[in-house]
Write a structure and sequence with these properties.
homotrimer; TIM Barrel; Rossmann fold; Immunoglobulin-like
């Protein structure tokens, strides 16, 4: 278990370093990330290098038993470099330069930048490849954050044209698949193709829009690969990672992770300014990150204080750092690095708070971290080698998310909010979920949920048919099958290629106004269920109805259907279910598909308390996490030990304090 | 009666064309519009033409008895043309190019564009002038839509300077009439004059602002005239039209229509995303379009499905297409072309729904259209030669609307909303209204309503005095007479030149805060009437008071006045009346001016049902349109036949179903 | 007492001038401001001057006994000048030119502009230096209004680099104090330094941001000084002023006023579109302006009608002009010039209403002004030499306000709103306040209030310690001491350098969500007091608690503390107090610091009536101003005479009408 902190020695007088290292060690820390924004200090002027300070801090950390993850500093090219090559700056849709003074002020496709990257990364890799204290590398920092994925400069335009040529070969093929005949947009030459920049009205060809997003994502992947290759050349034994951003969607993280040794992400559970944080959001992003490489991951930046640029976000209450840390671990984190050690005295993030306040003294958050450090030492061997084990998966498709970003269908509609609403069900019911790519193998799962799967390749369609035929349960919902992978409408009656699998046709459809809903009836239930946002007018062609619209001109037509296909079952949801109906439908789906694992664990938790497990060959570690500030009654059907405190918990009700966490090991099995 | 659809053969495989033509014919269609965005297909490269496909589809349609309206493709110049002449792109207020990728990416004043237009239009006109299947031409498409009327490029700046020189002759005259002495803005040379582009604060000289709007509108008119002249040279026998946009106000449609043979507009009754569509809005726009040339018109694009760019708007319910169609006809449409035949599989409007869904199969909307087609065959000879016959008119002044756009006076104030609130009264009370230009002849009307007529020429003032003197009833309201035609304030006590006609002075005035209102008393009425948005402090000088403010420091002064002048009467309204008071006042005005025609028709309709008539020499066609989803009781005082169904309706109450329409012919006269 | 109006003779035919002058005289006016936007009329073409019309109007005014304040016309350089030197235009953050067509279209650092200014100002100054009718000069007009302080052109970039070199000398010092090591922003050369313009994310280095604001403010001061020096060279006997804008914060008015003979500001009490105007806002801005030079001031533009650009603001009700006028005088105005004489018939401000309506006739507002003119003649000798005399002061720090503008900490937080909430207490309780600079002498005051004093120089800290030690009462609140004067965080436990003075440490802190509050208890009070926006977790180190948080994890820790230090007392407020708690706390502070003067005046006013005094050597003038529309009962404990009406007011209750004003002189002393 890696346990540590992000540290910026270049921000502090060297005489303080020793104190910091000692305090870290006393808090049980064994790793630091350093260097990822330090280019100015490493190469103050072109070709003038100074690695001596970096040598000294790495040595110092190593002496204290703290290993180092080194960041490459390419997120912040220095001013001397930018002044020599101003063409490196990104440009926005209007052609404005996105200039110097913040960070990430570079274009991924700028040829001028590549030699500088090569040099600085080679210098670092060659110097520290053999340092025993350097365990891993982080490439750049948060690719794409603050809308820096998509650039509209001339270099990007040319690179996009080349990318399209590579993809389509023939420009007529591109015209055909994009449908540029619409509004007279046929391109005769690759060099004629535009970026989706400023036009009289902001509505570009959907095929071009989607390809541009794919291209921009690929540009980042290519940019990262240059650095990975350089590092691996010198340091093949040191791991390479990048700190991704969970639900951030501008870069396809499945692609970005392929060449990485381990996936990482930056976890700020309360970065949003909201009164009530939904802990499912962090849980989901952990699961997303775990799904990237199908194995455990690191949290490279883990919130330790109130974040803040010019505005401050909420201050973590006592117990929150510890609670968030165990949630991370419960979902598969094998490394926790807090962001950051101490509040910086200057710079754009001087309000981004840390373990230590600006005064550098031990305080509440330091003490809480220290407690976690001690607990982790106690449970390290238990955690070692354990992992989550899910039989259900949600499919996250960046391409589909982009298609909805380009065309949300519904005012203020969010693909991710909808995705989250399904995830929420599983979170609330303690059902472990994997979040996987549509290109991943489906065969190990019992249940697959694909939300808003408007585009699908033939291969995906075939594998989904095969999955259900072989006994799997599949959930599809509105808009499934409406488009092909080029973001074109299918000339088929909906749900298009999924019609046979789902046993329905969708004759009509439409949006609902704002918060409008329509009543939905479920046989045997008197509740006033509701569908919102969208309606499909479904005609069953073999499927049976699970819920029926009870209002408007499509009253009587199904809202949810179920179709036995082969050995499995395919479900279709033709509206946005309210949470009560969602729970009712998914309860049935979960039971039928046999994924409702945790509920049979012998541990019963009330609402607000999360139950999640990591499994080792021989045993299960049950994390019970109270996300509320109030004590909660936990009903135990067996006898357990809390690994963190060593305390034994008897059968019956035990009280878990507000913000409290247990890591339970079964001593005596539940009765059932 | 033209009945048909907008069709894009270039979007579909040629082997489908036959099916489409057959299905159209079976639906009773006799016209299609084609070609208006097809430049890329007609001239794929400069000077390389391919009209063969257009020949084939026109021939095919002709064979099916379907006539063709050909669009000129100038709304979407191809990429090869734009790459050769990038100076054709419009520019925004900041100088940003409004680039390629949507449509309407050209400046009306770009000299580079004119030769290309000339060539493509001549090619088309010369080729199809003698084709028996081609009945008419549409110039370009929706001039100005998506804010493409006003451009800020250098060509526009120069053209504006030339336009000003043409208007004022002498620059001192322009300085005087604009009042450029204010803030030291005197221009010494024409070439010094600026466009109302980006400044430190967005507040330009009001005279310059208004002239720029006039210039921009004139630029469109001039642009259109080039094409009309070319077509008329080859095809003087084929009608020329343009699809305008109802209440859209950037181009003066009175001017734009002058050279057209027939006016057209695009009618999307539910393009707005609102829960309750007000059917008066479409009615008003029909009346506006009829007023352009003072005769019947075409609906060139008639909504047939949910519209949608990236967001979808509401799906029409069963019966809505039919209902909308008859409303259009009732207000004077002699041509209905649905937009569009089939949902496009690609492009920026792939979500803009059509008669056929993307799957191309017959469905609910096709069947509804077909029903209308059959009914129209039945009533064609009745409709032939019939027209609306109004004795009341509202005056729509683009110049005044622009003056209020430049200076709305009141936060979020809309000239058109206010205009609509008066129109609503007449709509609700079944009183047929014409909507005319202030330059039109007033003498045929009994009642004229001029809302917010802040600017007037001397000629208009004189004709209004003459109109009232001769026995007409005139309604003016707040801000009347405050400015001259140059958008300058009059140095007169308000209502300026209208003071004698109205018999009042307005000593003071002001806005009301947001939703604030002031109580208004009407003698003999106990209701709590209200005025909002604005107050005038009126002193009668011969006029009598119809309603009096009962609150604030101007309590006791009139809110509405009435002044007998010559044989007629001039009314003045000094605030925004609430709907109850508006109805009370206009009831009296309508009765006194003898325009309340329909109420004496023998047909009584409840709220939500529209009653409107077209008149032939010998008979009246009464359209009864139920705009609600509920059945309505219609009280008939005579015996009628519904021309659409052939059903006879006895005296007394008959039930009109939700979304239902009758076209009633009197068989036995009402008792009165 | 100066009493007059802003007049634009160049807007009106010369034959009208005589009428205007006569009407002004009849209204008791003795001063006009003219010429400040007249460059086009004075120099229609480069080098062609015409001062004849200005001569004539000055002579005419002089003949009528009306003195002239001449404006320099530099706010509106003519078009011929801008066309010759387009580099003079300001540029925005994206590099867009902020072009011609409004006003203030120039950059303060444009070298091209300086020769033109020099010439026109010298021409004016030399011509009118000896004219007996010209009493004073106004430089330019409202520096910075409509966001024209900060420019992003190349001239500004260079000027900023030079300014920085002047400030820091050594670029390493600048890097150190800004902390440019953060995100690799170290500058090697002055010419590398950027303006805080467009970046990928709008978050610049806080040190750079603050220095840029200081630089921009200094640029204005420098720009003004050029003109002052020119005028003083010719006309050292004529006063020089500038019309500032009260709470407007882009220019440091303390610096801007240093070289002025008298401070002026433009007072529009109801420029905001709000239902209920808070009269404390105008009062505060009067006090701010009086504080600039520590003596009486002029209101150069005083609202006389509804303002309006494209939107109109509320029309003043009868009595409001008079009431506002006396409020201005009560707070120290020795000059009142209404804006403006007559509604302009043209130009961007044709809706900005005036004493006369557009028709130029005497009306309600003229008559009200005339009444004031008559009253002022009566009380002129009394007012002569009188001034406000406060023992309490609030410290307004532009630097601190800028620091909060750059980093508001809290969503939608406003330094000025918070400042105002403290001012409101003193306003409501009739306690005269000065508003002074942190560089001013503190020693004459009994109470100092410093809100959000996040930055302080060592000198300020020392003087505050000395102030309290010597017996003063000091109020500091949250964020005090958190930063040094470079906008860097202090590496000290909060409240940093103020810790000893306040006798506390602040261990933690944070924001509260939106309208969230936390309960606060005060011993001996049962009220449910509340703190909002921010919380400090305070540990007393000698201070005593005045109020204690009663909620959340910091329940029990003080919200407000009091610390006796030397002979004085230092208070600290660790949250945003609700108004009830604010009043409770400040009541105690006011009583203890002996500043609650007016309450002992013998005049008792209800809520909504303002009580404020000007003091002469031997007597006090009590202004009693009824800011409501309802009559108010005023309880008098002595016998008074109302100087305005000459009416004698007996002991007991007298009724002051709505919008009414008294200027009371004590005839018989109050009983106490």
């Amino acid at each position: 278990m890696l346990f540590g902190v992000c540290y910026y020695p270049e921000h502090w007088p060297e005489e303080r370093w020793g104190t910091d290292a000692r305090m870290m060690k006393e808090a049980g820390m064994n790793v630091v990330r350093i260097g990822e924004f330090a280019w100015s200090k490493l190469e103050p002027r072109e070709g003038e290098y100074d690695f001596s300070w970096l040598d000294r801090i790495i040595d110092l950390m190593t002496e204290h038993g703290i290993r180092v993850i080194l960041g490459t500093p390419t997120a912040t090219p220095p001013k001397w470099l930018m002044d020599k090559h101003p063409e490196i700056y990104m440009r926005d849709k209007f052609g404005h330069v996105r200039g110097f003074g913040n960070r990430r002020h570079y274009c991924y496709n700028s040829a001028s930048y590549y030699p500088y990257i090569t040099t600085i990364v080679e210098k670092l890799a060659s110097r520290y490849a053999s340092h025993p204290g350097v365990m891993a590398w982080q490439i750049d920092n948060e690719f794409g954050c603050n809308e820096t994925t998509r650039c509209y400069c001339d270099a990007c335009k040319l690179a996009f044209q080349v990318w399209l040529q590579g993809k389509y070969g023939d420009i007529d093929a591109m015209n055909e698949r994009w449908g540029t005949v619409f509004w007279s947009q046929i391109y005769n030459e690759w060099l004629e193709v535009v970026l989706p920049a400023n036009t009289p009205f902001p509505l570009h060809n959907p095929g071009l829009e989607l390809d541009y997003r794919r291209f921009a994502s690929d540009s980042v992947v290519k940019f990262q690969k240059l650095q990975i290759d350089l590092i691996k050349q010198y340091a093949p034994h040191q791991a390479v990672t990048h700190n991704m951003m969970g639900a951030f969607n501008e870069v396809d993280d499945f692609e970005l992770s392929k060449e990485l040794d381990i996936a990482s992400w930056d976890n700020y559970p309360n970065l949003m300014f909201t009164r009530d944080v939904n802990p499912a959001i962090a849980a989901m992003q952990h699961d997303m990150t775990r799904g990237l490489k199908g194995r455990n991951f690191w949290v490279m930046e883990h919130q330790s204080g109130q974040p803040g640029g010019n505005i401050m976000f909420p201050t973590p209450r006592p117990g929150e750092l510890r609670r968030w840390t165990y949630q991370s671990i419960a979902h598969g984190a094998d490394g926790i690095l807090y962001f950051r050690w101490r509040g910086c005295l200057f710079g754009a993030e001087q309000f981004w708070h840390a373990i230590l306040q600006h005064d550098g003294k031990e305080g509440r958050k330091y003490n809480e971290t220290k407690q976690v450090g001690e607990e982790l030492k106690r449970v390290a061997s238990l955690l070692e080698g354990s992992a989550n084990a899910s039989r259900a998966a949600m499919v996250r498709s960046f391409d589909n998310e982009w298609a909805f970003e380009i065309q949300p269908h519904i005012m203020n509609y969010s693909y991710m909010d909808h995705f989250t609403s399904y995830y929420q069900y599983f979170y609330d019911h303690g059902i472990g979920m994997d979040i996987i790519s549509p290109n991943d193998d489906f065969t190990n799962y019992r249940l697959l949920v694909l939300s808003n799967f408007i585009m699908a390749t033939d291969d995906m369609v075939e594998r989904l048919y095969a999955f259900v035929e072989g006994g799997g349960s599949l959930v599809l919902d509105y808009r499934a099958g409406a488009k092909d992978w080029d973001n074109r409408m299918e000339p088929l009656t909906l749900p298009g290629k999924f019609a046979d699998l789902l046993g329905i046709t969708v004759e009509e459809y439409g949006v609902m106004y704002k918060d409008d809903t329509r009543r939905i009836k479920v046989e045997g239930h008197d509740e006033d269920y509701r569908g919102g946002k969208w309606f499909d007018v479904i005609v069953p062609r073999g499927a049976e109805s699970m819920a029926v619209f009870d209002e408007d001109y499509y009253a009587g037509s199904p809202a949810v259907t179920k179709h036995v296909y082969g050995k499995g079952t395919a479900y279709y949801i033709g509206t946005e279910l309210d949470s009560a109906l969602r729970d009712l439908i998914f309860n049935e789906i979960s039971i039928c598909s046999k994924v409702a694992a945790h509920r049979g664990s012998g541990i019963r938790v009330p609402h607000g308390v999360e139950l999640v497990s990591r499994v080792k060959v021989d045993k299960t570690l049950w994390f019970v996490i109270n996300h509320t500030v109030k004590a909660a009654d936990i009903l135990l059907d067996g006898v357990y030990e809390d690994g963190l405190s060593g305390r034994k918990l008897a059968k019956g009700i035990s009280v878990l304090e507000g913000n409290g966490v247990w890591m339970l090991l079964e001593i005596e099995a539940p009765s059932e």
